[in-house]
Structures are given as C-alpha cells and as structure tokens.
Design a protein that fits this description.
Structural class: alpha+beta
CATH superfamily: Outer membrane efflux proteins (OEP)
Number of strands: 4
Order of helices and strands: HHHHEEHHHHEEHH
Helix content: 55-70%
Length: 460
Amino acid sequence: MKEAIIKFCTRPVAVISLLLLTACAGPQNRPSQPVELPAAFSQAGRFSVSDAWWTAFDDRRLDRLVERALDDNLSLRAGYQRLLQARAVADRQRAGRFPTLNATSSAERQESDTADSTRFSAGLSASYEVDLWGRVQSLSEAEALRAAASLEDYQAAAVSLSGEIAATWFQLVEQRAQHSLADNQLETNRTVLTVIESRFATGQSGSADVLRQRQLVSASRERLNSITGEIGILQNRLAVLLGQSPGQGSVPDGASLPALPPLPDTGVPAGLVQRRPDLQQAWRVVQAADQDLAAAISNRFPRISIDASVSSRATSASDLFDNWLTTLAGNLLVPIVDGGQRRAEVRRSEAALEALVQEYGQAVLTAVREVEDALAREQQQKQRLKSLEEQIRFADTAYLQLRNQYLNGAVSYIEVLNALQEKQDLQRTILNTRQQLLTTRVDLYRALAGSINTKESSRT
C-alpha cells in the first residue's frame, strides 16, 4: 500500500499540475488606494499635535480625565479582550502550518479461569498537510490580518473615547459657566426689580412694569434650575465614561473654558489614510479578505496530507517499547465533482473582497470629509463669535443708555426690558459658541488622530 501511494504521488501528472496551477493561488493584487484623494486640505496650521492631542488645550483637569478613562473605561477594556481573542484565533490558525502530534496510552486487564493478564499499549500519531498552493498559509495570514485589524479597532475606540471625554468635559464646564452667568443675571434682574418697585411705590412706574420684571426674575430662576439639572446629567455621563457609577465618581471642578489652541498642521489626505486607526482597520480587513480569496482558489486544487503513526503492545510495561508497529501514509485529495460548490465559494469571496474595497474607499472619503467639515465649521464659528462679541458691546451700551433714559422718564420700560433681555441672551450665546468652537476643535483632532498609547496597548 505504501509503495502504491508513493508511485501515485510521483506521477508526472501531479508534477505538471503543480507547475500549471501554482500561479493561480496566492493573494490578489488589490489597489493600494481605491479612491482619488486631493493633494491637500483646504486649511492647515503650522503647529504639530502629538498623539495625545487633548494636551493641546493645556487643561490639566482634562488630561487627568482622559488618562483615567483610557485606563478604566469598561467598553475599552472589553475591546482589549476582543483583541486578545483575535490574536488567539490567529495563533490557532497559524498552528495549522505545522505537523500535529498526538500520544495515546492504555492498560487493559483480562481475567480468565486459568490466568489473569494485563496488556499495555502506547502510540504516537502525526499528521501534516503539504501546503502546495498556499491554502493553509493564506488562512493563517488572513487571521493574522484580522488580529491586526482588531488592534486598530481598539486604537480607534481609544481615540473615540478620548474625544467623547473632551467634548463632555467642555460641555460640563460651559454649563457651570452658564450657571454662574445665570446666577449673576438673576441678581441683576432682582436689583432692577427693586428699582421698578420703588418707582411704582412713588407713582413713577406702572404696575405692568413691575409684572414684566417679576416675570423676568422668575424666568431667570427657572433657567438656573434647568442648568443645575444639565450639570448633573453631564457629571453622570463623565462618571460612566470613567468606569464609575454615577454619583460615586469624582469629577474635577472648573467653570472656565480654555482658550482655543492654534490651528494644527493637518498634513495631507494621503497621510491621514496612513495615520487614522479606523482606516487602517478597514484596510486590514480588506487584506484579510484577499487572503480568504486566495484560500478559496487554492481549495479547488488537490491536497496532499501525510499521516504517520507508531504503536506498541505488551503484557509488561517494561517491554512496551520493544516492538513498534509503524505506519506512514500519504493521502491525495483531488476534488472532482462538488456541484460547483468550490467555484461558488471563489465567486462569493471575490464579491466579498470587492465590497470591502468599496467600503474602505467610502471610509476614506468620509474621513477626509470629517476633516474638511471641522475646518469649515471652525471658521464659521470663529466669525460668529467675533460678531457676537461686537454685538454684546453694542447691546451693553444700548442697555445702559436706555436705563438712564427710563429713570429720567424719557423712554418706556419695555424698551429697557428688551435691551436687558437681548444683552443677557447674547451673554449666554457667546458662552455656548465658545464651547461649540472647542468641541469642533475636538472633532478636528479626532479626525486627524493616530494611535493612542494606553496601558493595554503598551503590552502589545
């Protein structure tokens, strides 16, 4: 039997088939970039930003929050465990490239009327698939690429988490600043109410003026209560992002928004593709699908496997290895008729690969759009903030003049009230616009960010 197998495996047809079909297997040559990218972004600064982009805001409280979240956030920890799973799968698949060796042993007790005996047996068996067409290697490399994609996915989650921390922190600081502003506005409105009530007592103002101002005081109290509730919600959100239970975590104080850092150097779109972990993750998935296709093509060709075993039986454990029975066999599996199953699998793998390539191209375009959107939004918000600061100067001057004219009886109180409300609305809008400007910068940093060093990634 052994001789027949060896003769069959060395027939010229097998060698010819090997030479003809080797070129058919192996990964396909995909384009390195499925979409055309612009040469540069519409705007760019001169200041480089580190991977720890949040430090550009020069806010120590924000730095501590992001560091805590990267260490303790439960979703990020779960992502790291998924990374470990992917690596274990890659190691398991890589093991298929090497022979397997199994050992067996047993002892059997036999009893009869004449005599009792014990028989011992032991054996080793090994098997190995000769990877003629690279099928096993392609499957191994596919899982290795998926493990690499899982690492990039983990890094993308870290970038997303840091951005969410920064955005939530700036919202919280803005609401605290709004609370302080609302408290000051309430005090101002109460002071004005006292003046109106004094004038009403002397007949210099009507009851409608008192009622309007009391309504404004009541609205100021309601706004203060609303802001207090929003602060609590944002603190709870931060606590959960830090891996803490709401109400039990410690959130740093602070009610002053930082200054906007200078515009960073955005680099070029091609560099963005190489830098962003989510795009690298998508490309690793494309490469893994390319290896899957190579394995599907290789699966249509013959497979050769070699099996070897050695065993021994004896009535005494000391004699167990004196006599060995050895078997060596080679198997050639040639797919002849499978109803088109393997051909269909190749077509499916080709379509799956092409779909992933298109999805990757869409992800690249979306990433470039995110940078451009953040740049455009920041430019618009800067202009809006400049306009609002100019409006607040005019509104403050107009209110003071109208108030003096009202005290002198030259204008009605409704004009003073409108001017006061416009001024206070502008104060709140300016605070909100400053927060939106910082959040837009966070979006820009996230869109440009590369990998972030975390406690878990330092182990990789």
